[in-house]
Amino acid sequence: MKKKHYYSLFVIGLFICFSLIMISSQFSRAGGTGATAGVKPSARDYTDRMIVVYHDTSVVRAAAAGRASARVAAEKRLEGLRVKTGINLRHLRFMSGDGQVIRLPRKMPLSEARELAARLMKDPAVKYAEPDARKFPMLVPNDTRYGEQWHYHAATIEPGSVNLPAAWDITTGSPNVVVAVIDTGNLPHGDIDPGRIVQGYDFISGEEWDGDWCYARANDGDGLDPDPKDEGDWITEEEHLGTDATGGLFAGCPEGYSSWHGTHVAGTIGANTNNGLGVAGIDWNCKILHARVLGKCGGYDSDIADAMRWSAGIHIDGVPDNTYPAKVLNLSLGGEEECGHTYQNAINDVIDQGAVVVVAAGNSDSDMSKFAPANCNGVIAVAAVNRLGGRASYSNYGSGVTIAAPGGDKPVDPHGVLSLLNDGYTIPAGDDYRFYRGTSMAAPHVSGVIALLLSRENGLTPAEIRQWIQATARPFPTGTGRDCTKATCGAGIIDAYALLEGNPAPSIEGMSPESARAGLFKFTLTVTGENFSYSSVVRWNGKDRKTNYVSPTCLEATITAGDIAWPGNYPVSVFTPAPGGGETGELTFEVKKAIPVGGGGGGGGSCFIATAAFGSPMEKHVGILQDFRDRRLLTNAPGRAFVKFYYEVSPAIAAKIAQSTTGRFVTRAALMPLVGAAYITLHGGWSVALLAIVFFVLLSLITTRKLRPGRRSA
Ligand SMILES: [Ca+2]
Ligand SMILES: [Ca+2]
Ligand SMILES: [Ca+2]
């Protein structure tokens, strides 16, 4: 019995030892990351508003609907927050999602506003409070016809395009599909039929300035109104300079001419095509719904969230219901921020309504995870590629990106994306066409292609749309000088033709190697066949394996040590997701018996002790440890050294454990903390894992001690 107790102590010892290795390797990795650069103060960094949502939503709901007694109750509750914080918070308006927009006594840096939000959230009545920050159009402006619209041309000629000509042979869209452009508003243009622009709404609210109520941002003399006309968003030098960084109404917003951003975005989605005039649009027939949210110096989150819900057909108090609910919402806007409740809740509501949300990834050449609302769950986040299909130099990137689309880039193409514009520097003047560059221009390519898809498949859910555009995305070209990968620019470049046509059914012909010995480290399996897509995955024993697309006839898959832990015959197939696609027939991969390690005579595969204790290498606890080994230990030098050592000493012990029921039971109990810590490390953060390690070590020592009397009586 004492011997069996040593097994568990040995396992705990191993566990502590590898924990230390992992912690030290993690710290050395974290030390390598650079510090973030200082941020210049700009309008992006300040706010004068706060969004508050209370647990009890009845008061806000009734007050928003106009009940006088509820308004008094809402004011009373706000008075409570005023007293608690000592800050003069005033009601500004009620918003969708049961929110109340509160006016702060002054413009404050977002960091200060976040601290205030944290203080407000200490009030038990408050569900959450968030600064009502501003978002800005994501364009890279440029200065001034189908031949020039490389971003639409056939992919065989233009590697960075959305491949429309063949797609237009399948469909040119349907007037039953509505795409919402949540942007700077609408301008009439000779190259877009006014009948295709449906009744939108202007969501730009007013603001208090120097004690007076004004509509300087909206620039149309009033707050919310049914006319989403773009009134221009120019900023004069005077407005730009303001009195100081926080004092002027538009201080910190760059001086510049009107962008007519919403018109450009709408033109990409649906300018009139084949009308002998100007430019083409992606969808020739869809309806465009303008929800105006961006005015001079950007737009508030609260206005944008309201506009999103309304566009999807959700009722907003005080606004007539939208009679043209949109299935696609295009948001070519954003700002550096975490995805807060305001956006996530609005996005969830909109998706529940069946509408898909397309968001520009942002133009800061940095990780998109820092930019809202592109970083929110459930959206289609769009990175920009240049004419060669490489990542545009400005485009944000990262694992959160859903898909890439053309946005243009200067070193590769002097222009960018050509679409509708107006030639007014301030207020609107005559029709114009202009090249713009940016993820703002990439996003409407995706929205337009989704509109084409919906004209054929109008029952698709937002999740299916997201999956379909990813499954049919075109491979990123290599040799562009700034190559995209699936880790940086999403699933590929959106391909209108591939999406409408669907994936071809794949077939499998051969693989290399065809066998391996159990217990080897991971290796690459090359699979050959036909009709492979960029989204095709190699399946090993029914499980998807990390797959690298080489060509339509060749894939490479990473087979882990865990996959070949036990001798046997394993089926290998290729699966291509819908639309179209399917699974191929199976080839058989043979895993042969391992060569005995260290003369101990155990053998039989990897994770020897765990396999012996849990009875099978396929058991789920063993799987967690194998995963941990593959993803955390085999990825660094100290981890690999540990695994090597473990493989030398463990087979002999494993063989003895396997012979005794009690030995297996005790080892299982001793391994549980290890399994738990491994699981948390894989699925949670390192700090959580560290706490868990301490907790589980203590727990395992206690458990082992308590087990002793039980074993005696057994
Ligand atoms: Ca207005
Ligand atoms: Ca208006
Ligand atoms: Ca045209």
Q: Can you offer a commentary on this structure?
A:
This protein has 17 helices and 29 strands. With 714 residues, it is of the alpha+beta class. Residues 15-40, 139-144, 597-605 and 708-714 have low confidence and may be disordered. It folds into four domains: 46-132, ACT domain (Alpha-Beta Plaits); 136-500, Peptidase S8/S53 domain (Rossmann fold), CATH 3.40.50; 503-592, Immunoglobulin-like (Sandwich); 607-713, no CATH class. Bound molecules: calcium ion (CA) (3 copies). The site of one calcium ion has 5 residues, from loops.
Amount of helix: 25-40%
Overall body shape: globular
Provide mean pLDDT, rounded. 86
CATH architecture grouping of the largest domain: 3-Layer(aba) Sandwich
**Which class best fits the helix and strand makeup?**
alpha+beta
In what range is the share of β-strand residues? 15-25%
Spatially, the strands of the biggest sheet line up as 7-10-6-12-14-16-17
Question: How many extended strands?
Answer: 29
**CATH topology tier name of the largest domain:** Rossmann fold
Ions and ligands: calcium ion
Q: Cα distance, first to last residue?
A: 11 Å
CATH superfamily label of the largest domain = Peptidase S8/S53 domain
Q: Which blocks of ≥5 consecutive residues have pLDDT under 50?
A: 15-40, 139-144, 597-605, 708-714
The total number of structural domains is: 4
Largest sheet: 7 strands, parallel
Determine Rg (CA atoms, Å). Answer: 30 Å
Count of helices?
17
CATH class placement of the largest domain: Alpha Beta
